[in-house]
Design brief:
The chain is mainly alpha-helical. Helix 1 runs antiparallel to helix 2. The chain has two helices and no strands. The N and C termini lie far apart (80 Å).
């Protein structure tokens, strides 16, 4: 009668408590796993951003080097124009300079320093 019912009730309560403890542990494990995943994802995202920024900086540096070379080329071109060279000897050079300038202005639009 009464003692058996009481014993069964205690067993049921104990099973419920054990189940609750197990569920809480699982939840904690899942939370920890999710946190790890988020940390890894964040680190990967930051690394990707760093790589992109480095690529942009390298491209900007290359652009600056080209611009510097272009200026030197233009100075030489201008001084060679002053001397009486054969007519049309600098047309190829002029075309190279124009092409390089067009290329550089295209690069500047691609790599807007504001985007850094």
């Amino acid at each position: 009668g009464r003692p058996v019912q009481h014993e069964r009730q205690q067993e049921a309560e104990m099973r419920i408590r054990e189940e609750a403890v197990r569920l809480l542990r699982d939840l904690e494990k899942r939370r920890a796993a999710k946190k790890r995943e988020q940390t890894v994802a964040r680190a990967e995202g930051e690394e990707q951003e760093r790589r992109k920024r480095m690529q942009r900086l390298i491209a900007l540096r290359d652009e600056a080097v080209k611009a510097h070379r272009l200026q030197a080329l233009q100075k030489r071109h201008a001084s060679s124009d002053d001397s009486a060279g054969t007519p049309g000897s600098n047309t190829l050079l002029s075309r190279v300079i124009q092409h390089t300038q067009a290329h550089l202005s295209g690069l500047r639009q691609l790599f807007d320093p504001a985007a850094l």
